[in-house]
């Protein structure tokens, strides 16, 4: 967890230092009646380790804004809101090579029962949660299973850590080569007969006499699944369940996005642990992560707004 006790009152120091016991108790008390609630892995949460892979969250992209850190530097951020994100199942599948696949199924954004199919109504009723608009699953390690029915909070991600955001990009429709691939185009002066934005020649001579597959040409642009990696979390609002990440994320406003721990950063921390560089397992200022997940019960014991401090030299102070 972020080092809150460095600049917080004494009563907040205690709750920040004992985050593991708080998360474990909250996860055990919020277990539902679904299929995965009786599994021993889901009912015995432990401590986070670099080998652990936690579940992700489903949030809505609310738009972009600006934040100013404690040094007065303006930072563009994207606001993501977690809408009643709950666990609806724990998946366990044995592969052909006898390895076991574990995943946590998460659903978010309540919807009316009249617009939900009977099959999904039975699934949500078995998990003890209201009907949801979107259901996704996140691969996890066996020690990171979460009891069914647990309500996840924005505190699942700690300010200062890095996350990956996954969503469908904005569709641009059918576009030409210049906009789709950044082609230079033909000359804009004399000598070009109404072909300024043309892609030019696309094939060769009689041999091979065809256009190779994958040639960059005009076509449908955007509307594909995009993963933006290594975005730092700058602020978390536990009251409104808001997550402020630096930079832009794919998708239109109010679209559902998937947030997970940054794969590359976590893999780098695992390698640092193998080398004995224990101070470089997590990013600077982050001592621990809520495990197996950040719940609403944990959010009640922490401040409403938690920010990641700036660990750089102020740009407004003259350098000697």
Write the layout of secondary structure elements.
Blueprint: H1 10-17, H2 19-29, E1 57-68, E2 74-81, E3 86-94, E4 100-110, H3 118-127, E5 132-139, E6 162-168, E7 173-175, H4 177-181, E8 219-221, E9 225-237, E10 242-246, E11 256-261, H5 263-275, H6 296-300, E12 305-307
Antiparallel strand pairs: 1-2, 1-11, 2-10, 3-4, 4-5, 6-9, 6-11, 7-8, 9-10, 9-12
Explain what you see.
16% of the residues lie in helices and 28% in strands. It is of the alpha+beta class and 320 residues long. The strands form three sheets. A six-stranded antiparallel β-barrel has the order 1-2-10-9-6-11. A three-stranded antiparallel sheet has the order 3-4-5, covered by helices on one side. A two-stranded antiparallel sheet has the order 7-8. The longest helix is centred in the C-terminal third of the chain and has 13 residues, at 263-275. The chain is globular. Residues 5-44 have low confidence and may be disordered. Residues 26-50 are annotated as: Disordered. GO terms for molecular function: structural constituent of ribosome. It holds the Pfam family Ribosomal_L3. Residues 26-38 have a biased composition (Low complexity).
């Amino acid at each position: 967890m972020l080092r809150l006790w460095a600049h917080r009152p004494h009563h907040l120091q205690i709750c920040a230092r004992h985050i593991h016991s708080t998360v474990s108790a909250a996860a055990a008390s919020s277990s539902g009646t679904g299929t995965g609630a009786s599994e021993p892995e889901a009912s015995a949460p432990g401590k986070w380790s670099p080998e652990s892979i936690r579940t992700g969250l489903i949030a809505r992209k609310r738009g972009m804004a600006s934040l100013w850190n404690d040094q007065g530097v303006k930072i563009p951020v994207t606001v993501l809101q977690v809408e009643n994100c709950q666990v609806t199942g724990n998946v366990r599948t044995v592969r052909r090579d006898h390895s076991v696949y574990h995943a946590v199924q998460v659903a978010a954004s309540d919807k009316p029962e009249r617009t939900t199919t009977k099959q999904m109504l039975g699934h949500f009723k078995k998990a003890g949660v209201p009907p949801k608009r979107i259901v996704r699953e996140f691969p996890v390690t066996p020690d990171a299973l979460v009891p069914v029915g647990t309500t996840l909070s924005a505190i699942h991600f700690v300010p200062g850590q890095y996350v990956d955001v996954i969503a469908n990009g904005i569709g641009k429709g059918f576009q030409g080569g210049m906009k789709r691939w950044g082609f230079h185009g033909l000359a804009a002066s004399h000598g070009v007969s109404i072909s300024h934005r043309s892609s030019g020649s696309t094939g060769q001579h009689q041999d091979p006499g065809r256009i190779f597959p994958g040639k960059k040409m005009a076509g449908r642009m955007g509307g594909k699944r995009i993963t933006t990696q290594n975005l730092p979390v700058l602020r978390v609002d536990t009251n409104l369940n808001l997550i402020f990440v630096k930079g832009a994320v794919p998708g239109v406003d109010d679209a559902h996005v998937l947030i997970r721990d940054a794969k590359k950063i976590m893999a780098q921390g695992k390698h640092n642990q193998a080398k004995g560089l224990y101070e470089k397992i997590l990013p600077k200022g982050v001592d621990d992560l809520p495990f197996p997940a950040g719940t609403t019960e944990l959010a009640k014991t922490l401040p409403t707004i938690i920010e990641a401090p700036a660990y750089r030299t102020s740009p407004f102070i003259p350098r000697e």
